[in-house]
Amino acid sequence: MAQAKAAKSYEVTGRQAVLGRAQGERLTSNDFTDPNQEARLVESGAITPVTPAPASGDKKDKESQ
Amino acid sequence: MAKSILRDAKVFVNGVDLSDHVQKVTVPKKADEQDVTAMGAKSKETLLGISDDSIQVTFFQDHEEGSVNRTLAPLQGSNTPFPIKVLHASGTVSKTNPGWEIEEAILPEYTPLDGQVGSAETTDCTFKPAGGEGCKELTS
Asked: In chain A, what residues touch B80 (CB-CB under 8 Å)?
């Protein structure tokens, strides 16, 4: 069974609000009407992808292998 | 209804609120006029043809990330549509605070640099429907 793809997270990095979110606030890919909107907003610098922090214990697990 | 001074119109292009860079916004609603005057007519007879709506905006140019130029440049010349929405004023859309939206707009022409020495840098944009329903009025 296929797993649902996790939504990407973005931070509003431009001064202009995006979809009602001000600079510093976050969005997910589920907030966009289509992938083109998402891509164009990233290209414009209005939003920047946020890399999720590695889950605690990941490093420890690798070291223990 | 009281007379109003326009000073808080909102303009959202592809989801980006560019209102604080808007000098002027115009929402012309029009349709082609077709002359169907035939023999025997005493005056011209006109029928309305296909609608030709648009949303016209004059922006104060800004080249910062996420602002005017960086938002509009990727949209120009592409047939991949994007939404544009205009509100008469901030707040909830209603019959007394209407809005207009082209859900599937394109930007055929864009001038990233337009000005003369000593003047404010502005750029005029005309957003056209890519098809679909054209420009819809929002009242709720």
From this structure: 36
Which residue of chain A comes nearest to B63, CA vs CA? Answer: A44
Task: Residue B14: list chain A partners with CB under 8 A.
Answer: 37, 40-41
What pLDDT does A7 receive?
A: 86
Q: pTM of the prediction?
A: 0.87
Which domains are assigned to chain B? 10-138 (2.30.110)
Q: What is the pLDDT of residues B50-77, one digit of tens each?
A: 999 999 999 999 999 999 999 999 999 8
Q: What is the DSSP string of chain B?
A: ---------EEEETTEE-GGGEEEEE----EEEEE---TT-SS--EEEEEE---EEEEEEP--STTSHHHHHTTTBT-SS-EEEEEESSSS---SSS-EEEEEEEEB----S----TTS--EEEEEEEE-STT-SEEE--
Quote the percentage of chain A above a pLDDT of 70.
75
For chain A, the structural domain boundaries read: 9-64
ipTM for the assembly: 0.83
